[in-house]
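User: Second chain of the day. Same drill as before.
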Amino acid sequence: MKKIGFLFIGFCLLTNLSAQKVYKLDASDVMEAPLCGHLKMGNSGPKEKAIEINSLYMTLGGKPILPVMGELHFSRIRKDLWEDRILKMKACGINIISTYLFWNHHEEIEGQFEWENEKDLRSFIKLCRKHGLFVVPRLGPWSHGEARNGGTPDWILQKKYLKDRSNDVVYQNYVKRYFAQIAYQLKGLYYKDGGNIIGIQLENEYWYGKEGEPHIQWLKDTALENGIDVPMYTVTGWGDGSVPPFEVIPLWGGYADAPWVEHVGKEYQPGNFLFDSFRDNENIGNDQIKRQDVYMTYEKYPFFTCEMGVGVQNTYHRRLSIDPLDGMGMMIAKLGSGSNLLGYYIFAGATQFTGKLWSTEEEQLKTGYWSRLPVKSYDFQAAIRESGEIAESYKKVKKLHYFVNEFEKDLAPMMPVIPKWEEDGLQVSVRSNNETGYMFGINYSRYHPKKAQKSVKFEVKLKDKMLRFPQKGIEMQDSTVFIWPLNVELDAMRLNYATAQLMGSVDNCYLFFQNRQIPVELSFDKSTVKGVEANRAKIKEESDSWIVNGLNSGKDCVLKVQLQNGEEKYVVILTEKEADNCWLLEQDGKKVCYISDADLYSSLGDVYIFSTDKKAAYYKLKTGMNPRFEQKAVIFNQPQMDIRIQPKGILEEAKWLETANFHGIEPYQQRYRRFFFKEFNLDNPSKIKKVTLFMYPESKCILNLNDTWVNQEIKPNQLNEIDLTGYARKGVNLLFASFPFVEGKKQFAARVIVEYYNYDRIEFSTDSSWLSTDYYSNPSLTREFPQPMMPMVVDKPGYADGIAYNTFKEWRLQVPTDALEKLNNIYMRISYSGDKAEIYNGYMLSDDDYNSHATWTVGLNRQEHSVEGKELTLVIYKLDKDEKIFFDLPANGTDEQADVKKVEFDFECLQKID
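Assistant: Same format as last time:
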């Protein structure tokens, strides 16, 4: 029996060993010396802090850096809110802000340039400089950014003898004038002058390969002729982007989904979550030019990105829901593949501001552009939402940014090792300088749950060391992403490895966090570490290392590390949730660490906390001997405010006017009619898009607008929708309705809605200004007609409140005066059924949303125009059952009915903390 027992144990050991998955990577001889001096960039600035770019990375004062760049569109955010967004981006570890310039924002009408208010480029760049952030303007002149005509003014495209986006001499003339205007705004703000502009982008998605190089070169030369002299000139590289050799740097990107594609099904892009040295991505944008030949190779250019999306902009036919891990997973894939500039599009959601002549979004029906977008909302499911709220994706990538910010000098020169793994399995890469490095892991893919990888171990060969870890195989669950240090020296403390992610440091404390439920194990090199102390941990001494495991991560999980040189260092292992809520900020000139479920940022040495809760707890790391997190709390003085929405009937604001009140009609009046006249003016810079009359008459009538009879039947005792678009005109209009004399008491009510191509909307309803008169013949330009008098206004009938329109429904919202006086923001959260929703602030469309079955959050303080003391109108449209639309999230009910399910308000306060 004993013999059988030993055989059984041996069989189990062999089975266990065979079940282990060992990922082996050789990073012992991967370093390359960068090629320098071949890129023809502009003035790099003073020598001691020169910004220069080689074939692998960027340097600042000769030291490698790995910047984090996020996009914010200044002309799509109110000027008084710029600072809020800038501070939130900086708190997330962003150190460069990129921003599109949309030509049609600044010269919508030919020759009339605008650089004020939200279009004030110069003030925006100076505000970024105030808070220590670099800026990269993306000049265009074609930018896209889901803008109308890609940002090209309509008047350019309407010229018969002009070819846009080319070296056409007429187009060049207008671009020169536009660039001169930009240069005037940027004067003195370049890095060479002590400013913060370190680069520009020329054009965008210019997919013409070799044949497009002369135009890009001309744009660069024109920029230089106007004094736009910067350390970095870039273009987008994907889709055979045109790259004049070494004159510009091609930048890359990737999105988790494609809202522009034609189909209405799931879009599978597993390659976004694989490590790969191939930089291009055919899934960015639509209508890319397909070529059989290879345009160029990029090994002499650094791997920089400018359009990595933590979200995407929903289009009408694709209503997507991007997971917070999507952006994080893609960025780790790029970083682990060797990317040395992490560029996001878009990082702060925004609003399409109102144009004078046209709406400013990518508009499909009028311009023929690819996608149909919300008229106002440019939320993009961004890290900072259009409402101003911080998203979960923000907290995911924040941990990554803090790590990159602190360890960029070592990480940027490291070369990637990218073995080929099974696509469905765990993806692993290493970046190394031969002696040290970092391991990157991804077990995640959108729409494709990954199998849990069990009994996983790693073997990494470095120049003078072989690392095999952890001591016991670990399980990699689905949705696991990580970055782990390998033989890294943290000051004088050498860490052989850690199965926890390094985030940053404060004074003598290094901050790590546990990735999901992966057991944390650390190995310290005994040549630098004399001993390790920790509560509730297993510490094992080996010949050349200290192995620490059995840890319970959390704020109180602190390791005391005694160094051979007599110093003491501390290692804190947070949970992943605590790391999401961790903030590394500047306070009184020092780096500090806070943990809070609330949100924080710092401004000029002060730290602020903001939350929609009435009380917010936070923990501040006290460093020194025996570091610990001290708990404090703030109580916000939230004002008492009752904001509600109320249903609004289609004719609720209309007065009912009497059309008949006869009990016996005189013979001579049998053919008489009662006329109602309404004069109205349709002056607006924009063209009329649509004029609709909603009318409920109790008897037959006919209509005339501007001396033309309206050839549409009007049925009594029901709500009629009459299209007056072809009859209306700019300027003064005269509408009259003609009712025959009939027995009994009759009345009517009406409402006119006028829509413009810039999405202004004016409306008016029946009231005492609809003058009335009785007469036999119709009004005519050739005959005199009795002077109309004030109409008879009567009580609305009992059925009036039940009159409804089946295409849309409306609600009113009264915002109190000074509602935002003591608040940072008010968030209105709306759950609704239907196709889309709009909010009007007076005659202006203020906000809109394509229903994705997620709660729509509206930030009341970020509207284009103030809403305080105003009555807002919410309009929800039903969904046509024949529309072909892809929804990521299932509907709760039917969208063929337009209705509000739930509305809640959250009040956000902001307060300085110590």
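The longest helix spans residues 392-411.

User: Great, on to the next one.
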